[in-house]
């Protein structure tokens, strides 16, 4: 391991000698945007007169990096957003959303990306941050930098003629609350009419949803991102409770020639509100099918169809990737829902680090620190990122050959210990 780390150090030293990686300022905005688009072979869209209306409107230029050649030419970019992440136990923590990572085709496979990632992780630690997150454009890139897939999403397509919902068999019981509200109402608005409502409803939702990220006001104000954050024309079904308070919405559009109604996202305070919104879009006239673009795996809606096969799942994919930078702090910050002890032996090849930690949970509180006890599980830091939010069972990674269980029952205990109160899900695109 030491030799491997030394080779990495030499690699970064050689890469750094051939380039300069520096933080950006507001004066670098155009250079940063142009370099990023060139890295992906795309031409920038035209922002509105205020500089908004494009996905990069919310860049934080004091947190971005530019890689420059020795003669001053920009060849790589790496960005960072400031978010809050909801951990199991409804704990809100600051996190960095890594974004806008690109290297010009002329300079790929020359150590530019690795050098930028090394610099960025060092900066995050200097800021006192203990984890970072990203959305991976390619699933083969970020594992080597210590990131692991931690939340998942999928599409659900429902033909209109098969979309009827069945009556719930356990309606209103303590174990199975009513799956449709009797007192809520739905109002159809245009996107331009309800920006504040969307912002408020989403913010309440994300505070209770493990894996969810905040959407800072500047994102909504500048229209940065995908609908419904962007100002792209959409209809919005706004759900209100019996007091008239908005508690959910579905952003959607219907288009020709196939008359598909596409739901960008459905945000709901609870399952009953989600069912009301789903019923609304599923009963829409003059559409042939409804597509939920960002559907949570394991959601009960599929069980609510009169025809169990009505919903076709596709596009099942990873979404949020997690990287831990301070393992004891990360493990003691999230919520826990059962008592237990595990010794975790964690390798971090990219940073050349190794640690063995005793995780002890008592009365929903965790203590974590170095230990010389024999390990229960041996794993890569990317595997720890995958299981951290409770969306990936440790036993799955044991069966895949990524995590090593050193004693019988260790994986089963880890599954129970790392579970969240509900499946983590992230809707935010960045």
UniProtKB/TrEMBL annotation:
Active site positions: 142 (proton donor), 430 (proton acceptor)
Organism per entry: Streptomyces nigrescens
Family affiliation: Belongs to the acetyltransferase Eis family.
Record InterPro entries: Acetyltransf_17, Acetyltransferase_Eis, Acyl_CoA_acyltransferase, Eis_dom, GNAT_dom, NAcTrfase_Eis, SCP2_sterol-bd_dom_sf
Superkingdom of this protein's organism: Bacteria
Signal peptide region: none
Descriptive protein name: UPF0256 protein
Keyword annotations from UniProtKB, A to Z: Acyltransferase, Plasmid, Transferase
Pfam families xref list: Acetyltransf_17 (PF17668), Acetyltransf_9 (PF13527), SCP2_2 (PF13530)
